User: What shape does this take?
Amino acid sequence: METFLGVVIGGLLIGGLYALIAMGLSLQYGVARVLNVSHGEFIMLGALTTWSLYTAFHINPLLSLAVCGPAAFALGYVLHRTVYRRILATSPSPGVFESNSLLASFGLLFVIQNVALIAWGANTRGYSYLAVPVSLFGVLFGANQLLTLGCALVVGVAFYVFLARTRVGKAIRAAAQDSTSAALMGVNINSVLALCFGFGAALAAIAGMLISMCYPVTPVMGIPYTIIAMIVVVLGGLGSIPGSFLGGLVLGLIGSLVTYIEPSLTLVAYYLIFALLLLVKPTGIMGR
Amino acid sequence: MQTGKASWLRLRTPVLWLALLAAMGTLSLYASPYTVIMVTNILMYVILTVSWVLFSAPTGYISLATAAFFGVGIYTSATLGGQLPLPLIILTAGVASFVLAALVGALTLRLKGVYFAFFTFGLVELIKHLLLWYEVSVTGVRGRFVVSADNVTIYYIILGILVILLLTSYLIRRSRVGLALQAIGEGEDAAAHTGINVSAVKTFVFALSAVFAGAAGAAMATRWGYVDPYIAFDYLFSFTAVAMAVFGGLGRFEGPILGAVVFAFLRELLITRFPYVYMLVMGSVLVVTILYLPQGLVQLAQKSTWRRLRGHREPA
Amino acid sequence: MSLLEVEGITKNFGGLAAVSHVDLRVDEGEVVGLIGPNGAGKTTLFNLLSGALKPSSGAIRFRDENITGLKPHQICHKGLARTFQSVKVFGGMTASQNVLAGAIFGDRGQMSPKQAGKEAARLLEFVGLSAVAAAPARDLTLANQKRLEVARALATKPNLLLIDELMAGLNPTEVAQAMDLVAAIRKQGTTVLIIEHVMKAIMSICDRILVLHHGEKIAEGTPQEIATSRTVVEVYLGE
Assistant: This one.
């Protein structure tokens, strides 16, 4: 029973992070139609920045949120305003836009990753923050892990409320449904798409900040997270923010279970789930 | 004379290709061992790039599975090395990649655009982790030593694979299959209703393109001597092939070759001393190409563009 | 002699029946019209006949053979070709390559490239596009793209041609030309099933007309009978 609880709670702990990462990608792919393979690089930037601030200036990791979040948002926003908007303007069809923006995001992946490698070097880094054991239903967890889940839930819910309640949030949801009619109804579509891209990047950087509290960080850590985010987005249904959140938790649980049985096959299991899902139900668990 | 000039124009391309082939075919006679190794590396990238273009350019499906097929070739070599003669190993690697690609293609080529790209991307990671798990838990070793061959032999094998690949893509472009591929790229529904067996054509050409990546992997493994799953199934091989092809330009036969040669040469110059700078340059060039040179490098080679660039001095 | 026999064909999307228990028969040499309001299920019916969709139930017999559930390219090879409501020409290829593709692949590779080229040239002439044979299909006018689709479909040597809205969006002169084209297609021996909204045209070119409404066949008869049918007038013509 304790093992079972351990697996479930462990799954939720990692699932919270997956949910956050996937919500970010869901905004970028579900709304702005950019399959952003450089998504994980924003996670990496958030993680390494947090690490630097903590080790150099002893700044509390949670406070680095104030730096990482806005900076990543600005970077994402500017990227969409410059790179993706130009591709959108020059692509004759949605299909061409999807391929070209995918290729451009590959280029950005290389750029960001290698700038980070030059800046931080290839070493694996880490720091110890709140690494004290806490007992939960008789199972021991790190306090930092619980904090991570807490933050992920708060950020996730806050963002959902933002989408549901504010004017900008409603415009984003309208654009996710159908960008042409949203534009007709007076939504400034270009700026909404750029906002989505910025929010996606900010969510990634926040997730990176949380990840750095519990796991080692390196400049090449991004790609596995990108893959996980894409799997969750497909799992949860394209463009569905609640779906991404739920999908993240589900994948976390599955991952926790597989890790318990055979740790080296976790990514394999994720990928097999993704493959089956694509072949059987490409619209996802919450998809239409 | 007018007719003389016309016939020279008609013959110019084949004559140039033959001269290039003759120069490449005798390289080991006049070039230093170092040059032979460098040219081998460059040709390997040309193979990966052109084999990617064979399927992905006409159909518009972005495959990121190149590294998977290349890796299958590498591991074929690592497993069979010493047990079979090298040409047979390379043939086996080609067949193994063909079978894998046919399976993957039959399953996934009905997925729309980016899903396919993503699926093939994950495929590389899947095989890598499965193999790693197998090696660690069953065979108990992480890497394998590969029976090596001498550099000149490897050079000629790689050159041979490239020549066959170029001939294959040239013939396919001019064949019924090429017309079918083009129609599929323009519109799959219409192609199917025009009598084209869309899934069969896509799967076949995808599998065919994998043969060359697999064969190249088998040949290159004999030079590296030691491989492990991380070396063999490195998604960089997939990205690089796509970046080189897009950089060169997909619209013309020579484009991807040119892109691969330029990039692979740059790689040779930078990779050992400044690996991050090389990849940074590659990433930036890919972004700039997509934004400002949609037809790729060959676009620059066209006269009108030159004139426009000289006339207006466009900011890059 | 009957060429196409459809029995009780039904297609459900979720809980919604887009086409519901439709019976349909087309005889050799006929021109049959298919009309109905938007969303009546006309294009869905075409998709079912040509294999783009699999029916939920019902059977399709074509030339005394059961073709239910075959793939689009197989149905094309059986001799049933189609055009599309929203044109789907191969935009980046020239007009003549479009037709060439039909000639080469529609005939299961029976034709040599040389024969196929001749056939393509003949069909471009037939639909009146010889002058633009070398132009990329995407540069053609809408009317010409629709003609090009007809030529590409004819190149597959069909016994039955399904034409989905040849005349929508065309001006009166072009409509008249399109009507002549349908007459010419019939004259050269191809049976035609045509979806059309231009009433005047469909009344004058068809031998029989079927009316679909909410996925069901509500009337069938000669143009005369359809024009005077109370049911049809109520749901469709009267509006």
